[in-house]
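From the thread on structure requests for the teaching lab: each student submitted one protein with a one-line request. Submission from student K.M.:

"Model DUF3108 domain-containing protein from Patiriisocius hiemis, tokens only."
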Amino acid sequence: MKKVVLYLFLLCVTGISFAQQKAYDDGEWFKFRVHYGFVTAGYATLEVNKTTLNNKNVYHIKGYGKTTGMSRLFFKVEDNYQSYVGVNNDLPYRFIRKIDEGGYTKDIQIDFNHNTQIAKVNNKKNKEVDYVTFPKEAQDMVSAFYYLRNNLDINTIKPGETLDMDMFFDKENFKFRLKFLGEETIRTKFGKINCLKFRPYVSAGRVFKEKESLTVWVTNDENKMPVLIKADLAVGSLKASISEFKGLKHSFKIVVD
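Reply posted by the TA:
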């Protein structure tokens, strides 16, 4: 059950949204309920605020997740992920990962230099600093979601096709792969919503049952807001569904019967 809240959520949303114009802005906020059936296991949030970093205009994106109730008694999770993304180029300048998952902790800050393509990885817990090269325009775990919302056109990909992008996490470079499954209208607490359906590829093993264990639905509008995530885990299955939101840049659309 390790990393069942924010880890699962962020893995899902790193590559699921497509738009021709800016899909988000200052003040956007999402809250997700993570649950087994009717039992709530935890919550995760994502929020966006404009600020500056090293004299650059950036979006400060914060992801936070934790287990709640009985789930917290069995396995305590409290994860904090942050990314500072350029307002004009959608590239990450800083990534923060501060987690506590059942006593397993990490406190890492990564600063990206896109001119030299070298990332400074500061492991604050172990007091270690490494310098690692990364591919051009590589994204971090959080920034990838927002990059794709602004830069990829859903009209260029057909159901069944996949896309890849370069990502940098901790001290490693890897390819993130996503399959587009088509459109589907689903029921939510806000009503019926027309969605785009995706399948992010993950590593099978300890957490996920197989590499195609995740299915993700995002609104088929200019917001491309994630509304539902379903995961087949090594033991059981899990869902994350949107429970609250505010600060959307575009109108939110409900399907009327």
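TA comment: Residues 81 and 97 are 5 Å apart (CA to CA). Confidence is low (pLDDT under 50) at residues 1-6, 13-20, 204-210.
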